[in-house]
Amino acid sequence: MASVPEIKIVRSESLGHRSEVSSPEAKLGMRVEDLWDEQKPQLSPDEKLNACFESIPVSAFPLSSDSQDIEIRSDTSLAEAVETLSKLKVLSAPVVDVDAPEDASWIDRYIGIVEFPGIVVWLLHQLDPTSPRSPAVAGSNGTSHDFTANGDDSAVTSGNFFEVLTSSELYKNTKVRDISGTFRWAPFLALQKDNSFLTMLLLLSKYKMKSIPVVDLGEAKIENIITQSGVIHMLAECVGLHWFEDWGVKTLSEVGLPIMSKDHIIKIYEDEPVLQAFKLMRRKRIGGIPVIERKSEKPVGNISLRDVHFLLTAPEIYHDYRSITTKNFLVAVREHLEKRGDTSAPILSGVIACTKNHTLKELILMLDAEKIHRLYVVDDSGNLEGLITLRDIIARLVYEPPGYFGDFFDGVMPLPQNYRV
Q1: From start to end of 237-339, where are the E strands?
Q2: Closest to 59 in 3D by CA, of 186, 212, 235
Q3: Between β-strands 288-292 and 299-304, what pairing exists: parallel, antiparallel or unpaired?
Q4: How far apart are CA 192 and CA 107, in angstroms?
Q5: Coil, helix or strand for 289?
Q6: At residue 35, what are phi and psi to the nearest 5 degrees?
Q7: Element (H, E) at 374
Q8: Helices (H) and strands (E) in the chain — how many of each?
Q9: Would you say 311 and 363 are in contact if contact means Cβ atoms under 8 Å apart?
Q10: Residue 98: is its pLDDT beyond 90?
Q11: For residue 337, what are the CA distances in angstroms to 85, 303, 311, 390?
């Protein structure tokens, strides 16, 4: 049986360096370098960076894999949507309204963004004792499964729970448009091609957005989706450039990181139901949660929001477990990935940690190399001291000038009226 890996500390000597090949991200970094040299000498380094990023439109950001014509029709079933998201290895995708006219604006063309967590939460909402659909869900073999024995998380995390759920008619027949109440934006906050890098970076950091669609008003469609991970990759490709080295050499302590101390970290114990972990992440709007051993109070694993797809795409791997605890979930997924020969999944990395003496540059290279969204800060004994996310790092790159956004958010559409999750 696979085990949960131990804490892995970032080692400076193990980090790679920027390739000599000029990638689109590296070219973008050199564009910042040219703008940096043109700034007035009396400006501070922070003011120079802000001015540089304000001068570059988001249309210059390299196209991401998340934006390569990944759209889901509103009449797609939940089962088909999960299969598509899983195959493309993305957490979410914009939903196109099949009933929208051909000449519709982008606001009318899209009804929102569907995501794995939203699908899971919606399904669980239907199984709530207050829901008319809750008493039982029929499987494809004609059998039914009662999910409301005692109404708590442990009741719905038995080993065969998701195996039965994913074979149910509810899962197979419900359309994506039917769960629009789980969408966070209606349709979503988006940038236009001529908006600046500074605007994008502030939205991804201070305003806590994990991804931002860039729309082409002429085509009335999404041209690109910029993510926090994409920005970190861009920064990793800028190693060696003067502006990056000047900023990246600072240690965590020097820039006031971590912001979140150990007393404020939202965590879960290894013997708690895994659904509780995903519910916490959804409710607290966080991207990951550490799994803690009760005896030692030390982190033994990490579950991220994107890992929720393993509940729907591989429900059979928990069949032999009496209940799906966070530890059982980590072990089952590791065994599943090892059998498939998949060694690149971030969940296999375990707990990756750093100390307050590491530099921003070292953290960026590790986050990019491991394709993870957070690093845990530990002391010399491995005890948890804090947490650093992609957002924390981006927030140290730029700052918001007074009155910068003005009425920018006035045009943001509200949450749907039937939003309930």
Answers
A1: 260-261, 268-269, 288-292, 299-304
A2: 212
A3: antiparallel
A4: 12
A5: strand
A6: -65, -35
A7: strand 374-378
A8: 15, 16
A9: no
A10: yes
A11: 18, 15, 13, 25
| Amino acid at site 221 | K
Tokens 């509200």 found at: 414
Task: Tell me if residue 137 falls in helix, strand or coil.
Answer: strand
Give the C-alpha separation, 108 to 4, whole Å: 46
Q: Work out the percent of the chain whose per-residue pLDDT is above 70.
A: 81
Place of tokens 């598509």: 84
Report the C-alpha gap between 108 and 75 in whole angstroms.
Answer: 16
Determine the Cα–Cα distance for residues 213 and 66; give it in Å rounded to an integer: 10
Residue 76, token pair as written in the block: 């797609």
Mean pLDDT score, 167-181:
88
Dihedral over Cα of 404, 406, 411, 412: its sign: positive
Nearest to residue 273, comparing CAs of 158, 147, 118? Answer: 158
Flag the least confident range among 6-20, 75-89, 119-133, 335-349: 6-20
The strands making up 72-73's β-sheet, listed across from edge to edge, are 72-73, 92-96, 110-115
Distance CA 180, CA 110 (A): 11
The token pair at 266 is 């939202």
Tell me the whole-structure pTM to 2 decimals: 0.82
In angstroms, rounded to a whole number, what is the distance separating the alpha carbons of residues 202 and 206?
5
Cα 91–chain centre separation: 7
Cα separation values, 203 from 6, 245, 350, Å: 34, 24, 29
Rounded CA gap, 201 and 398, in Å?
7
- Work out the angle at residue 186's Cα, subtended by the Cα atoms of residues 180 and 188, and round it to the nearest 5 degrees: 120
- What order do you get walking across the sheet with 211-216 strand by strand? 191-192, 211-216, 221-227
Mean pLDDT of 139-163: 51
DSSP string over 159-227: TTHHHHHTTSHHHHH-BGGGGGGG-SSSS---EETTSBHHHHHHHHTTT--SEEEEEETTTTEEEEEEE
